[in-house]
Write a structure and sequence with these properties.
globular, 29% strand, alpha+beta, 130 residues
């Protein structure tokens, strides 16, 4: 099942999507001071040769602020949003910036799943480096 919208009117900083994005990342039962969104951004920042994701370095508070800034840039430049099923039947909601970069949540909007690279031929094989 899939639905799309070219309207970004509901994608602004007042919506509910950033809530879980801003929760503290946990690993091995330990709560960190790095947000879920900042942890995701750290994985993507090295993939883009044009530094679209920014350069999340410095104290964790700065990394958290950078991640939220990137998310808001995606919302502000959103050209489409889409709810669809991933292989295995997992329903997700995606928002894509005009440059192709995006963010993904569980379809209920409560669980941030990560940032998205622009779609590209052979992306998985190339490790999404571009």
């Amino acid at each position: 099942s899939s639905s799309s919208s070219s309207s970004s009117s509901s994608l602004d900083s007042n919506n509910q999507l950033p809530m879980q994005f801003n929760e503290m990342h946990e690993s091995r039962g330990r709560r960190h001071t790095l947000t879920v969104g900042a942890r995701a951004l750290a994985k993507h920042a090295v993939r883009s040769s044009d530094k679209w994701w920014g350069d999340p370095r410095g104290p964790e508070a700065a990394k958290n602020a950078e991640a939220l800034s990137v998310l808001l840039r995606i919302f502000e430049g959103a050209e489409w949003s889409n709810t669809h099923l991933l292989p295995g039947g997992l329903a997700v909601f995606e928002v894509r910036h005009g440059d192709g970069y995006g963010a993904r949540w569980g379809a209920d909007g409560m669980t941030f799943r990560g940032f998205l690279e622009p779609q590209m031929e052979g992306g998985h094989e190339k490790g999404w480096l571009h």
